Amino acid sequence: MSATAGLVLRIATRSDLPALHRVIESAYRGDSAKQGWTHEADILFDTRTDIATLDAVVADPCSRLILAEQDGMPIGCVQISDRGEGTAYLGLLCIQPALQACGLGKHLIAEAEAQSRAIFGAMHMTMSVIEQRVELIAYYQRRGYAPTGRRLDFPVPLDPPLYMTELAKALA
Fold this sequence. Notes:
The chain is of the alpha+beta class. The protein has helices at 17-28, 30-33, 51-59, 104-120, 134-142; strands at 8-11, 63-70, 73-84, 87-95, 124-130, 146-153, 163-170.
């Protein structure tokens, strides 16, 4: 059976957040994240997010949290945000570690792009990736995203500091 069999992509609601939060944390941090190919567990050791932050995303009319689920259970998500002037931002893309590298991320990215065009009228999508995550930057480049040349500060001050590489793509 295909990893995408029974895949449902929809806008997350507040009631989805407790279960989705567990998926996000398991995909980004801790030993569970190391089961997948894309994680921050070797770079960052705090929590990735919290339910209050996710709740603010769900409540924000300029953002959407797209939920991926199979058999009624969350397995991943992606956040899109309207940045104005025809630009949307893609962030918080994650897939449950045991299901990574099965093509689910491609489906979430395609849905994020489609929803950004439909909801926000976006013509461009941007994102930022921790610059040490070269394999993830390469993954996005295979999806049509290109480095803009902008180097951004990581949103949380650290010692030593981390930086983000900005990527962008024109949406068809």
